[in-house]
């Protein structure tokens, strides 16, 4: 259904409206609404891609074809010079392996110095491709350019600089991911030339590496040579100072140690041994003294026990004692042999005692000798220590001089070795990089990339189209849905009257060909139904269409109001011209009249009486004549016998001031009062409200007002302004009606009011193409 249903006339308090606004949900992203915006703005979406694709194709056809050759170089951080033999030298000769180093080498490849080598080698200054062609805007560019020619620069240098600039733009150096491989890409109009330049750039890069390393080596060798002479004299001076100081302080060195220190070491060892001997001798002597004082057997002395003589004497004593025992047992104690054996025992014991006494005396003597020797060594050691203490400060200074001489000697030897290595390296320098893949002649152009350019144009165009579509739809404030009309006006939206196809109207217009021959404008002022514009009677001629359904919905709203309130005069108006108010007024009046209700249709637009021109163009008496008492109402009213509708036309008025004054006069009030008593319903086709004041004056006299809004034509601001103009009679506004609604397009705004939703109920009048 193309209308809004309601049970009671519109009378909503302001408080309820405010509450509804406060409770309305916050705006959110509606994907379906976005889809509908893109569908209804498909022309706006499609225009930028088509334009950009066309421009892209023009560019592709007019652009210069370029071929790109690629030479791949390996920046090898582990590659060492051929003359370096040890690993430490290899590690020191190579640069770092971090990303910054590789990126630096990539920037070095496209540096001005290398490109100048290539330009000179290949003579690109004579190549037309690398000579800039003058443009129309060059003089203007030079005015605003800060890179003007340098004073004193020769033409050859300027030409070389321009060629280098062009080559730099045609070349691109990229690193392959995080590897050590670097691609040198060069573009040219000639495939062979592109390969030659790419390989020439790689060679120039290697030459630059070798030259830089040679210059660095030569500078280092010169500097080392200058340092070596000074270091050599410093070494000689420091070593002479050591020897002179040693001679002056008698610090003779033997096997790396001074003689005094060596003597102290030897005496210390001897003193330690003497102390041990003294301790042993004293121990023996003390033991002998204790045995002597105690009166014990001195034969238990350790030295006596270990003596061979005493051992023999004891053995002899034992043999004699045994013999004595044998003789005593055999001959008795008084036998001369026994006495003789006793004498032998006494002599043996005497010898043993004498030997022990001698050993005891020897222990005391040994103790005295050891103590004397220890005292002598201690005295000598003390004397040498005194000498060492006096020469300690001299030895500290000597060691300081030795360390300085050693440091000078080490530094000199290091510089000398490095100088020899550097001198040898001058004659052989190798680049730290090498070519992995030489550039080959490309077989296909690299630019312009047709699909890339077209794809970018399409992507950018679609993006711009989407943005423009949303922007245009956002800025488009024209009324397109019943909800929008209700929101802007604050009154109910009664119905959406569809646009009728031109072909449908043409079919209905064919009916009047036969009636035209019988029509006499002198006798019949009102056109017969067959001669009336088909759109003015479309609700009656096509009752099964959505157009007629919309008219009936407006009629239903009017009937509901008439049941509860005294409604006699209904004003059908619009905000601006050409919004379908006349078509709405005529069809609504005819629909009401068909119900048997006495209905009068008044053409209230005295300035532009479209209703009169459409239904009774030959009428000679109208509303102005009745109001001015020039004719009676019965003389001016025309009757449509097919519907029973009474029509009061408005003839053309040449005096404009009479029209304005009439709408504000009592005459028009008297005319309406006269008709109120004779008709059940009076429908007035009013002038537009915004440009003319006539419609506002008639609104003051109407019981209800129906506002016609042209679909996708009436701006929202105009509708809001119109409602402000009708604010004194706001309570009399029955509602709004959308006219000329294209149902096929309405589905992009309001699916449930569009043809997509209403197709199951009929298809008549759904195609667009005619104006109402």
UniProtKB/TrEMBL annotation:
Gene3D superfamilies: P-loop containing nucleotide triphosphate hydrolases. It is an enzyme of class 2 (transferase). GO terms for cellular component: plasma membrane. Its main location: membrane. GO terms for molecular function: protein tyrosine kinase activity. Keywords: ATP-binding, Cell inner membrane, Cell membrane, Kinase, Membrane, Nucleotide-binding, Transferase, Transmembrane, Transmembrane helix, Tyrosine-protein kinase. Pfam families: AAA_31, GNVR, Wzz. Residues 580-713 form the AAA domain. It is a multi-pass membrane protein. Its EC number is 2.7.10.2. CDD domains: BY-kinase. The keyword Zinc does not apply. PANTHER family: FERRIC ENTEROBACTIN TRANSPORT PROTEIN FEPE, TYROSINE-PROTEIN KINASE. This is non-specific protein-tyrosine kinase. It comes from Bradyrhizobium erythrophlei.
